[in-house]
Design a protein that fits this description.
By secondary structure, this protein is an alpha/beta fold. The protein folds into three domains: 118 residues, Gyrase A, domain 2; 111 residues, tRNA modification GTPase MnmE domain 2 (Four Helix Bundle (Hemerythrin (Met), subunit A)); 165 residues, P-loop containing nucleotide triphosphate hydrolases (Rossmann fold), CATH 3.40.50. It has 15 helices and 13 strands. A seven-stranded mixed beta sheet has the order 8-9-7-10-11-13-12, sandwiched between helices. The two termini are 35 Å apart. The structure holds guanosine-5'-triphosphate (GTP) and magnesium ion.
Length: 467
């Protein structure tokens, strides 16, 4: 599509930085080994200052590590990965020493010392992976999967991140992009040769091909949504009148005594959050102060915080006492909280606790209310299942790879542009071609073909140092 200058914008930009960079690659703290990693265009001068023997490519050399004064710091392994066969695609040197914070600091300082005059500096967060991306070792979705694998909060999330890392997500994006490129080439060929007087709509099954691309995008979006749930999870706020068992429910879901429980109404003052895994989906559960009119200034702040939590929740779980299932929380405070929930567009769930005292059966009733006992655990499975359903979780089998909100947004944009493409043809094929170009661009932003520099900076800055 070379005749469209927009397509040539290599927004991902500037050539990879040339400065050699160094950082600890292992987590801070004590460990059996610690790794310090260096990356740069040519590390030969640095290597020859650090070692008095040559390092054979990809061989583990065992020996002492010394500081600038020649004093031994530690002994360990040095491995050199000459460009381009390394994580970053540049020359990489890895030093494996003992994993103590002080020995790591000493070794890091010795490397920086040896790198004086060679431009060696400490790496920024994510800079190794950013270079890997800029050197074409990974695409952007794969680079994000590196961070998601490290941050995975469940085995399920880790497995799905692993699959995105090896490129399963990117491959699906690319397949759709290839089909879209064909459609674009056809439409643009018609534009380039208007004298041929071809009507693109009646030629080459254009509508059918667009349709098939459109449904591939929809299918990928559905799968990616599952993957994003595994990563982003959901936030559930437990709200209700004092003493109905909100804190007990948090403890029951977390299987831990996270919150203080007493039979005194007004026990909880602060917001308390705990993330639990339900089928591998991270669910942040927030316990709040009971909603009631009060003169206690501390409790009032707690109630304000409860409303703040409600405003940002994905699901508001209204908890009430099963012995008074039809009680209306008509108090001014409660109705304000209910209004907050409605305005924020959170899903709402009515849950009746202390079913053990009520004689009612646990589980979901015909009006969709869930009867539970935080104390005995009755009905909690139904509640967990309902929370996952509200989040749109379709089960582990439907999740194929991890994804991010950014990817969902790009797929949605792509879908909208494709939807607009055919109708746009009525006003001219140039407009149609433009919609297709924008659809293509949205897809390309997932893998980083078209991604603005500031977005890249933002993505990589969330990585840890040394990654
Ligand atoms: N029998 C029975 N008692 C429960 C159940 N859940 C909670 N309780 C009791 O109800 C009382 C209040 O529980 P909490 O969890 O502190 O209630 P809360 O809604 O957090 O109360 P505030 O923090 O004051 O708003 C405690 O004595 C709990 O032991 C339940 O399912 N069955
Ligand atoms: Mg409480």
């Amino acid at each position: 599509m070379g005749d469209h200058p927009q397509d040539r914008e290599v927004l991902s930009g500037e050539s990879p930085g040339d400065d050699p960079i160094v950082a600890p690659a292992t987590a801070p703290g004590r460990g059996a080994i610690g790794v310090i990693r260096v990356s740069g265009c040519d590390l030969s001068p640095l290597v020859s200052r650090l070692f008095d023997f040559p390092l054979i490519a990809r061989h583990a050399h065992f020996g002492p590590f010394r500081d600038a004064a020649g004093e031994v710091i530690d002994q360990g392994l040095a491995i050199r990965f000459p460009a381009p066969n390394s994580y970053t695609g540049e020359d990489v040197l890895e030093l494996q020493c003992h994993g103590g914070p002080v020995v790591m600091q000493l070794l890091l300082r010795a490397v920086l010392e040896a790198g004086k005059g060679l431009g060696l500096r400490l790496a920024r967060a994510g800079e190794f992976t950013e270079r890997a991306f800029l050197n074409g070792k990974l695409d952007l979705a794969q680079a994000e999967a590196v961070a998601d694998l490290i941050d995975a909060g469940s085995a399920q999330a880790a497995r799905m991140a692993g699959r995105a890392l090896v490129g399963e997500f990117s491959d699906r994006v690319r397949k759709i992009a290839d089909a879209l490129v064909e459609v674009r080439m056809f439409v643009e060929a018609c534009l380039d040769f208007p004298e041929e007087d071809i009507d693109p709509l009646t030629q080459g099954d254009l509508a059918a091909r667009l349709d098939s691309v459109r449904s591939d995008v929809a299918a990928l979006l559905a799968t990616a949504r599952q993957g994003a749930l595994l990563r982003e999870g959901m936030t559930v706020v437990i709200a209700g009148e004092p003493n109905v068992g909100k804190s007990s429910l948090l403890n029951a879901l977390a299987s831990a005594e996270v919150a203080i429980v007493t039979d005194l109404p007004g026990t909880t003052r602060d917001r308390l959050a705990q993330t639990v895994q339900i089928e591998g989906v991270p669910v942040e559960i927030i316990d709040t102060a009971g909603l009631r009119l009060t003169d206690d200034p501390v409790e009032r702040i707690g109630i304000d915080r409860a409303r703040g939590g409600i405003a940002t929740a994905d699901v508001v779980l209204w908890l009430a006492d099963a012995r008074e299932p039809d009680r209306d929380e008509a108090g001014a405070i409660a109705s304000e909280a209910i209004r907050t929930a409605r305005e924020s567009g959170a899903a709402e769930l009515r849950v009746l606790n202390k079913v053990d005292l009520s004689g009612h059966a646990p589980g979901t009733d015909e009006s969709g209310r869930i009867w539970i006992s935080a104390q005995t655990g009755a009905g909690l499975e139904a509640l967990r299942g309902r929370l996952l359903a509200l989040a749109g979780w379709q089960g582990a089998a439907e999740a194929q790879f991890i994804a991010r909100e950014r990817h969902l947004q790009a797929l949605r944009t792509c879908g909208e542009r494709l939807d607009a493409a055919l109708p746009a043809a009525a006003d001219g094929f140039e407009l149609m071609a433009e919609e297709l170009r924008l659809a293509h661009r949205a897809l390309g932003s997932i893998t980083g073909e078209f991604t603005a520099d500031d977005l890249l900076g933002e993505i990589f800055s969330r990585f840890c140092i040394g990654k």
